[in-house]
């Protein structure tokens, strides 16, 4: 059976919104993705998304960006500044993992380096399992490693987090705790509504693992791609170097342009639930697969101009189209964390002092403010264990280049 592909922006956007096409990209990674929010469809997806979306309100994004994240960022960045160097991939993972754990609801009670390293190791394994379809390793071997990681995660992190929240919820039910004092995270929402969802223990475990890997994996990679694109652009356009460091709205434009060129997943897969006929001319019978090429759709010259395949932060975007393309998806499966990662798209007259920039821009800005630049003696290397175009390591220095 021939698998059809859509690579135009308009065709991809329509297909992503079609309710008769269900998510199928993560079928190979079912060991960690089976039954999680991203892979659900229809009423079951709507019910769980509606509950979990309660965490992702605008006040949530504002509070995390202005209050929670700066502290996490400083704690993570300071040791690297003292050392004068860091690896962007490791730094991105480490910083965003802690942030993601906070809103997912995974406690790190000891707050030690060893505890962070353990969780980081487990989350990287969850990411490998989730993106198994693109892995070049033996799939059965990866699945076995992921199962072991899920078991370890459950014992060390998840069960203590559940026990603490159940205790707090009991105090709330008996009137000994105010609702505002309950944790504002996904795990608390799930536990508070367990009678409505009836989620088995193994599914709660996978849901938490999904949030951890999705938040840290995609955000960390997006930050590394953005830094690379900005390094390359400023080297070729030195007149923009000062603006990158002094104009936060321009810096966010750079981040959005990089997000467009480097979607976390280069493709989306959908399977038809019934015969489907799309405006793009594609027709599918029930059970047939469709590949939505986000990498190509985001580079559609009809939408983003003749140089759509190149990084250009001065790009004029057509009204009605996002500067980051379809990177965060479209329709009911659009990424819940879009505004957390990418921030709000500025409008004419946006006040840069109150604007929400998003976590990726905040990470890039902190590195730019401290003079980060590629290590001339240790060039970056690509990740060869996956078909996704990501960096395996990207060393940067903070001190002046000799």
The span between the termini is: 58 Å
| Rg over alpha carbons | 21 Å
CATH architectural grouping: Orthogonal Bundle
Count of beta strands: 11
Biggest sheet strand order reads 1-7-4-2
Question: Which regions are unreliable across 5 or more consecutive residues at pLDDT < 50?
Answer: none
Under CATH, the topology is which? Cytochrome p450
Q: Can you identify the CATH class?
A: Mainly Alpha
- The number of distinct helices, counting runs of at least 4 residues, comes to 16
* Biggest beta-sheet profile: 4 strands, mixed
Mean pLDDT: 91
Quaternary state, please? single chain
| CATH H-level superfamily title | Cytochrome P450
Overall morphology: globular
Helix content: 40-55%
Q: How do the SSEs run, as a string of H and E?
A: EHEHHHEHHHHHHHHEEEEHHHHEEEE
What portion of the residues fall into strands of 2 or more residues? 5-15%
Q: What secondary-structure arrangement, pairings included, does this model have?
A:
Elements: E1 4-6, H1 9-17, E2 21-23, H2 30-33, H3 42-52, H4 58-83, E3 85-87, H5 88-104, H6 113-130, H7 139-173, H8 186-192, H9 194-197, H10 201-236, H11 241-246, H12 248-261, E4 267-272, E5 276-277, E6 283-284, E7 289-293, H13 294-297, H14 301-304, H15 338-342, H16 359-369, E8 373-374, E9 381-382, E10 391-393, E11 395-397
Parallel strand pairs: 1-7
Antiparallel strand pairs: 2-4, 3-11, 4-7, 5-6, 8-11, 9-10
């Amino acid at each position: 059976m021939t698998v059809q592909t859509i690579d135009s922006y308009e065709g991809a956007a329509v297909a992503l919104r079609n309710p008769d096409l269900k998510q199928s990209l993560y079928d190979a990674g079912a060991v960690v993705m089976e039954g999680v929010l991203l892979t659900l469809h229809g009423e079951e997806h709507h019910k769980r998304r509606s509950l979990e979306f309660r965490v992702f309100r605008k006040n949530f994004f504002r509070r995390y960006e202005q209050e929670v994240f700066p502290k996490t960022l400083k704690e993570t960045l300071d040791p690297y500044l003292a050392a004068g160097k860091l690896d962007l991939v490791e730094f991105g993972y480490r910083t965003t993992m802690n942030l993601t754990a906070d809103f997912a609801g995974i406690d790190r009670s000891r707050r030690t380096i060893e505890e962070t390293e353990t969780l980081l190791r487990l989350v990287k394994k969850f990411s490998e399992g989730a993106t198994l379809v693109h892995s070049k390793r033996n799939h059965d071997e990866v699945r076995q490693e992921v199962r072991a990681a899920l078991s370890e995660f459950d014992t060390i992190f998840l069960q203590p987090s559940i026990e603490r929240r159940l205790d707090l919820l009991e105090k709330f039910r008996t009137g000994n705790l105010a609702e505002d004092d309950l944790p504002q995270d996904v795990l608390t929402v799930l536990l508070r509504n367990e009678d409505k969802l009836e989620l088995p223990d193994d599914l709660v475990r996978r849901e938490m693992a999904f949030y951890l890997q999705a938040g840290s994996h995609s955000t960390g990679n997006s930050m590394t791609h953005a830094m690379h694109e900005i390094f390359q652009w400023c080297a070729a356009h030195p007149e923009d170097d000062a603006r990158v460091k002094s104009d936060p709205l321009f810096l966010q434009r750079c981040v959005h342009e990089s997000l467009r060129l480097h979607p976390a997943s280069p493709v989306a897969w959908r399977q038809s639930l019934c015969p489907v006929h799309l405006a793009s001319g594609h027709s599918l019978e029930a059970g047939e697969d469709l590949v939505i090429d986000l990498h190509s759709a985001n580079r559609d010259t009809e939408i983003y101009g003749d140089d759509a395949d190149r990084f250009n932060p001065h790009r004029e975007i057509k009204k009605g189209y996002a500067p980051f393309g379809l990177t965060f998806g479209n329709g009911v499966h659009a990424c819940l964390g879009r505004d957390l990662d990418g921030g709000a798209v500025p409008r004419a007259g946006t006040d840069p002092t109150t604007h929400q920039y998003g976590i990726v821009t905040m990470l890039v800005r902190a590195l730019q403010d401290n003079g980060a630049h590629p290590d001339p003696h240790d060039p970056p290397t690509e990740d060869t264990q996956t078909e996704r175009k990501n960096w395996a390591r990207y060393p940067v220095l903070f001190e002046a280049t000799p």
